[in-house]
């Protein structure tokens, strides 16, 4: 399955169960760990777990074998490693604390600003 198709499958699975504030970040060239990160919020520990479980179910139906998952027991956050796509599902306070969007998108901005200074 192509990366973009896998990202769309993940986003659809999150939308199916009313995941909120779904963000996709292209991290190609920033890390060798993955190509895309999908970040979404859930409203409660049960919601986070249900969202993560739905993503796992939908990708497995398409023949994608997850490399691993973390945090499913607690429900404050969940991480799903699908290889070229890593999925983070978190409750809002946890998401605000880790601020992954700023971390990964900020790296791109600061690198672009730094490159401009060298010219």
UniProtKB/TrEMBL annotation:
Its main location: cytoplasm. GO terms for molecular function: ribosomal large subunit binding. Pfam families: RsfS (PF02410). One of its GO terms (biological process) is negative regulation of ribosome biogenesis. The keyword Thylakoid does not apply. GO terms for cellular component: cytoplasm. Gene3D superfamilies: Beta Polymerase, domain 2. It comes from the Bacteria. InterPro entries: Iojap/RsfS/C7orf30, NT_sf. Keywords: Cytoplasm, Repressor, Translation regulation. It is found in: Cytoplasm. Belongs to the Iojap/RsfS family. Interacts with ribosomal protein uL14 (rplN). Functions as a ribosomal silencing factor. Interacts with ribosomal protein uL14 (rplN), blocking formation of intersubunit bridge B8. Prevents association of the 30S and 50S ribosomal subunits and the formation of functional ribosomes, thus repressing translation. This is Ribosomal silencing factor RsfS. The gene is rsfS.
